[in-house]
Design goal:
- The complex is a heterodimer of chains A (about 675) and B (about 475).
- Chain A is mostly helical.
- Helix content of chain A is about 70%, strand content about 5%.
- Chain A folds into two domains: about 575 residues, no CATH class; about 60 residues, no CATH class.
- A three-stranded mixed beta sheet of chain A has the order 1-2-3.
- In chain A, strand 2 and strand 3 form a beta hairpin.
- In chain A, helix 9 packs antiparallel against helix 12, helix 15 packs antiparallel against helix 20 and helix 20 packs parallel to helix 24.
- The longest helix of chain A is centred in the C-terminal third of the chain and has 49 residues.
- Chain B has a domain of about 210 residues.
- Helices cover about 75% and strands about 0% of the residues of chain B.
- A two-stranded antiparallel sheet of chain B has the order 1-2.
- The mean pLDDT of chain B is about 85.
- The interface between A and B is large, with 33 and 44 residues.
């Protein structure tokens, strides 16, 4: 994979954020407000180097070897036969562009958002470290380094979710995310074991060559894919390992935008796209991933209906959209799945950053019921949110339209009508809950001054961030007049408009499109369009989706946006809060089920060891030993020579056994 | 008239050995000249380390120049094999010398250093031994110096001194007994073949009863020196009684020397044809993994604990040789190298935490170490993780390699014993790690005041090596020599 050679720029891409993290980490207290610009600069360097290396990624190999594309640099031989290196091909390029490009914008935004926070340098150190970890993941040419990156992004995510560690809820959310992600890491580790056993190598090239050479039997390949998918499901918040993602919104909003929307949570999509030959070899694995992805898309969208926290709404929409991507790469529509990742990174980052602007303006209020009427007060946020929402709903000709329709239609082409139906239905629900958020937040009148209980907000203090009762720590440290200039936060969002609106045009033109030309060398014939596989054309499908989306928007308008609804919005919201299905407020009881099935039994097991085995058996043994050692010590002191005799006797017994054995063996 | 019996190149082959064996003369000379006190102590250790470093330099040069040849009529075989073992011995001796400094007894530091070097020279002779005579010569040089060292406690209370002398005497008696078995075995081997040369022993066909019995008695000596169950009984007492630097020295150097002899005998003489003649060694190796770790569970003295853990660790290394494969030899060497760093690193930490200028290896000395000395505790944690075989340390990679080699050689039962032993050992080592990091009331802990910071060098080098080999094992693995 890739043309072997020396590519120093790859190291620059990879290590610049690491250097930034180290510098800010080490000198943070001295750098103070300079750590923001330094963090941005590190990512900026990485982004520029990415652009400069573009040609290397799409360069195809010598004539005849058309499947070889991109660049490959060997770094070290880890153990004999296990060489580790960096891989740079179009797939990596796509991810690196988003990680460093959108990453840079979010870093820039953070200079405004995190302004005045006590942990300002720490924040940028963590963020740079995250970018380094994520680049490790996508630049790896083998499963071992990939797993290292995989683990490190989990660690960075843990740090950043728990960034405000004074809040117990943040610490709990960080722990939950970390534990679930480690479950996924174990899955990948297991897959690596299988690969080493089957092909004797951990490199991607050898693993995929092994598939082509039929080194695996079908069952084993399925198990390897399934083990990999456990990792994907945990990292990309797929059912049933999704429940950490909404909780992860405890982190600062830029973190949610970068890690829990644009990049890290799409690592599962990357892994499946990267390992596409394995998935191509196992129809069962494609079935499994497609179904889980579809379920996640649907479930996330349904749960999105019942949320009141603006960031949790976006979190469930992220989960749902990643469900689309996973479904896409699962059924074999790799280009569509990756395109949806690409466009999603723009509009979801824009949604989160805009939500951040709103939250910031309202002094950390996150409950949409206490917003309302913000259209006049925050026009920029309104237009930004509206465009991004239209994009995520798949409104033509915005970016989300192209990518979502590509994924949805491909499911039909690859012969999964049920998944197609789910995809279309989910698009409608998405339109409904996204516009529900837009209407409640930006239309009507401002409800921030109304008593929370009259809006149906019960126990605001228990809801963590929901009623804004828990302020960000930086509010105590710095009064509000010290807010950073507003353009620090609006400028990056303005840049994101470009991607949110235009990114989809890359896919325009079928096989002549830029996108197809970019990814075709990676995925080969598997993404070639198939004529006549679906009962109707892509245009008809798009029309169908569009109608469903319009229906969703219309329903949201009737319930939340119409003049009648806006007139008595307080009463309506109160009613809805109180009458919300318990199934929705409890997120289908997934947490309760996991708690009952895994957490409580393992905690009981741990308690058993801590309370019974350790003190009684092990410590008990030590205590006994101490007593007996004292006693024996007295005994030994009086029988010193006897002891040596006893030792000698033991040795003689051993020697006798040896002699008997050798006498018998020698006699034969 | 006797002409010069051996060519000059033969003497060049044993140059490192000669350096290590003559350096003590200079140490003893300086001991007479220099004034009492710090200069005398420091000079002894410095000269000793300088000699060892010089020997290491020559060894590396010999390796790079491929000066591989038998010398003294196959009495000493210079090759990648002997050089690798010699380097391990030299490294272990350097680390042990660094641990001598914290003791403050002007009368004994010089002689201790000298004896340690002589003992190391014996082990280096064993590493290159090509016939039974050289093996025995090396073994006795190694052991005689150690008998003295075990009794030479520096700065000791009368009780401590009595313990040390007791340990020396026990070691002398039991070791002599094992030497007796071994010598008798050698005599039988000579009787069966008419030659003491290992190359000549190789020619003997299977099924010779005298040869088999000779092998058996020889193996008893091997198992005793390696401390394999049930020939291990001397180790805990001797390790606990001997001064700390000597215990550290013994835990690696005697093992490395005897392992070299065993491996040469195994690969050079028995080969793959006489597998039946080594089965008892695999059995005792398997027993050692279990018994060593089980016994370590209840230890409260660090030296004694490391003695038992050493029994198990040697079991692992011997298991790597099962099947007599070339890879097995490399893996055994890798693990021996890793064991050198992690074990001596742990000993160096013990040397550093001695309180009130007294040697103190009780486990309670470790409680709260994480708060008092975070760096030292972190290093110790890595040594213990490595001994337990957990990533990201050299011990983990070493154990994986050994598992691979035993399974490939068809000794699944050894692999299972290894896994069982490892599972038990995790508890042994993690308990110490926990003790270091569990919060304690610092007021109740006496401050530690090491007399010298020299062992810090050993701790640092060992910690870096333990982690580096765990992350990037190719560093050592690629340079390991193949043996014929």
């Amino acid at each position: 994979m890739g043309i072997e050679g020396q590519y120093p720029l790859l190291f620059l891409i990879w290590l610049a954020p690491f250097a930034g993290a180290i510098v800010i980490w080490a000198l943070g207290p001295k750098l103070k407000s300079w750590s923001g610009p330094i963090g941005c600069a590190a990512i900026g360097v990485s982004f520029v180097a990415t652009l400069a290396s573009w040609a290397d990624a799409v360069r195809s190999g010598p004539a005849g070897a058309t499947t070889v594309v991109g660049a490959h640099q060997t770094m070290v031989t880890w153990i004999k036969g296990f060489a580790l290196g960096l891989l740079w091909d179009p797939l990596t390029l796509v991810w690196t562009l988003i990680i460093t490009g959108v990453g840079f914008l979010i870093h820039f935004y953070s200079m405004g958002y995190m302004h005045g926070d006590r942990g300002y340098p720490r924040f940028f150190a963590y963020m740079n470290f995250f970018v380094f970890a994520m680049l490790t993941l996508v630049l790896a040419d083998n499963f071992v380094v990939l797993l290292v990156g995989w683990g490190l992004v989990g660690l960075a995510s843990f740090f950043l979710i728990g960034f405000w560690f004074e809040r117990p809820s943040a610490v709990a959310a960080a722990t939950k995310a970390f534990v679930m992600n480690v479950v996924g890491d174990v899955g990948i580790l297991f897959a690596i074991f299988i690969l080493v056993a089957v092909v004797g190598s951990v490199s991607f090239a050898d693993a995929f060559a092994g598939v082509q050479a039929h080194a695996y039997n079908g069952q084993l390949l399925f198990i390897a894919c399934a083990a990999l998918f456990v990792g994907c499901a945990a990292k990309s918040a797929q059912v049933p390992l999704h429940s950490w993602l909404p909780d992860a919104m405890e982190g600062p909003t830029p973190v949610s935008a970068l890690i829990h929307a644009a990049t890290m949570v799409t690592a599962g999509v990357y892994l499946i796209a990267r390992c596409w030959p394995m998935w191509q070899g196992s129809a069962d694995a494609r079935e499994l991933v497609g179904v889980i992805g579809g379920l996640t898309a649907l479930l996330g969208a349904i749960l999105g209906i019942g949320q009141w926290d603006i960031k949790r709404i976006l979190a469930y929409s992220t989960m749902s959209q990643i469900g689309y991507m996973i479904m896409g790469v699962g059924v074999g529509a790799y280009d569509g799945g990756v395109l949806h990742f690409f466009t999603h990174a723009f509009f979801k980052a824009q949604l989160f950053l805009t939500a951040g602007i709103v939250i910031h303006a309202l002094h950390n209020e996150q409950d949409v019921r206490r917003m309302g009427g913000l259209r006049a007060r925050e026009p920029f946020a309104f237009w930004s949110m509206l465009v991004a929402t239209l994009s995520i709903c798949g409104f033509p000709p915005l970016a989300g339209f192209f990518s979502k329709d590509a994924v949805v239609y491909e499911t039909l082409v690859k012969g999964h009508p049920v998944l197609y139906a789910i995809g279309v239905l989910t698009a409608g629900i998405t339109a409904y809950y996204m516009f529900r958020m837009v209407f409640i937040t930006f239309f009507g009148t401002y409800r921030g001054e109304i008593d929370p209980s009259s809006l149906g907000i019960r126990h605001p203090e228990l809801a963590g961030t929901s009623a804004g009762l828990l302020k960000h720590p930086h509010d105590e440290a710095a009064p509000h007049e010290e807010h950073a200039p507003a353009w620090l936060m609006t400028a990056p969002v303005a840049v994101l408009f470009v991607g949110t609106i235009f990114a989809g045009f890359l896919d325009l033109g079928g096989t002549n499109s830029f996108w197809y030309g970019l990814l075709q060398p990676v995925f080969g014939a598997t993404i070639a369009p198939v004529e006549g596989a679906a009962p109707f054309s892509e245009l008809a499908s798009s029309a169908l989706v569009f109608i469903v989306v319009l229906a969703g928007i219309g329903l949201a308008y009737l319930r939340y946006g119409s003049t009648a609804a806006l007139r008595d919005s307080v009463a309506r919201l109160r009613n809805e809060s109180i009458r919300m299905f318990p199934l929705l407020t409890n997120a289908f009881y997934f947490d309760a089920a996991i708690d009952a099935l895994f957490v409580r039994p393992s905690r009981a097991f741990g308690t058993f060891f801590g309370v019974v085995v350790d003190p009684l058996v092990i410590d008990g043994a030590v205590r006994e030993a101490r007593v007996s050692a004292l006693w024996l010590g007295h005994l030994f002191r009086s029988f010193q020579t006897g002891l040596v005799r006893a030792y000698a006797l033991t040795i003689v017994f051993g020697a006798a056994a040896f002699i008997v054995y050798y006498a018998v063996v020698g006699a034969h | 008239m006797l002409a010069q019996p051996f060519p000059l190149s033969d003497y060049a082959a044993i140059l490192p050995l000669t350096i290590v064996a003559t350096t003590p003369l200079m140490i003893l000379l300086l001991d007479l000249i220099l004034p009492k006190g710090a200069p005398r102590r420091d000079a002894a250790v410095a000269v000793g380390i300088a000699g060892l470093l010089l020997a290491a330099y020559v060894l590396v040069r010999q390796y790079l120049a491929h000066q591989f040849a038998p010398a003294f009529g196959f009495g000493f075989i210079l090759g990648g094999f002997s050089i690798a073992f010699s380097l391990i011995v030299v490294a272990a001796a350097i680390f042990s010398l660094l641990m001598v400094l914290p003791q403050r007894d002007d009368e004994k530091v010089g002689p201790s250093c000298a004896l340690m070097l002589w003992s190391a020279a014996g082990a280096m002779l064993m590493a290159g031994a090509g016939d039974l005579m050289t093996i025995f010569l090396g073994l006795e040089i190694l052991s005689l110096a150690l008998y003295c060292l075990c009794g030479m406690v520096l700065r000791a209370s009368p009780v401590r001194l009595r313990e040390a002398r007791e340990s020396a005497l026990k070691y002398l008696i039991l070791s002599s007994m094992a030497s007796g078995f071994m010598l008798y075995g050698m005599a039988l081997l000579f009787g069966a073949t008419g030659s003491v040369n290992l190359a000549a022993l190789q020619a003997i066909p299977a099924g010779n009863p005298v040869f088999a019995m000779g092998c058996g008695l020889f193996m008893i000596g091997v198992a005793f020196k390696l401390g394999l169950v049930p020939f291990h009984v001397w180790m805990p007492d001797v390790f606990e009684g001997a001064p700390l630097p000597v215990t550290a020295f013994m835990s690696v150097v005697t093992k490395a020397g005897m392992l070299a002899v065993f491996a040469r005998f195994l690969y050079g003489v028995l080969g793959t044809d006489h597998q039946a003649l080594i089965v008892p060694v695999w059995i005792v190796a398997g027993l050692s993994m279990l018994v060593g770790n089980l016994a370590a569970l209840s230890q409260i003295d660090m030296k004694r604990l490391l003695a038992y853990s050493g029994i198990a660790q040697l079991g692992y290394i011997v298991a790597a040789l099962a099947g007599t494969s070339t890879l097995g030899m490399r893996y055994a060497l890798f693990y021996l190298g890793a064991y050198t760093f992690m074990n001596l690193g742990a000993f160096a930490v013990v040397a550093l935490i001695s309180r009130d200028q007294e040697e103190d290896s009780h486990l309670s000395a470790f409680s709260g170490l994480g708060t008092r000395h975070p760096l030292l505790a972190a290093a110790m944690a890595f040594f213990l993780l490595s001994l337990a075989g957990l990533p990201p340390t050299a011990g983990f990679i070493g154990k994986i390699l050994i598992l691979a080699s035993t399974v490939a050689a068809g000794y699944q039962w050894l692999a299972w014993l290894l896994i069982a032993g490892t599972a038990i050992s995790v508890y042994v080592y993690i308990k110490i790690v926990r003790a270091m990091y569990v919060p304690v009331d610092l007021a109740h802990i006496r401050e530690i005041r090491p007399l010298s910071y020299a062992p810090w060098i050993a701790v640092a080098v060992c910690a870096v090596a333990t982690i580096a080999l765990g992350i990037y094992p190719a560093a050592l693995h690629d340079v390991l020599p193949r043996i014929r």
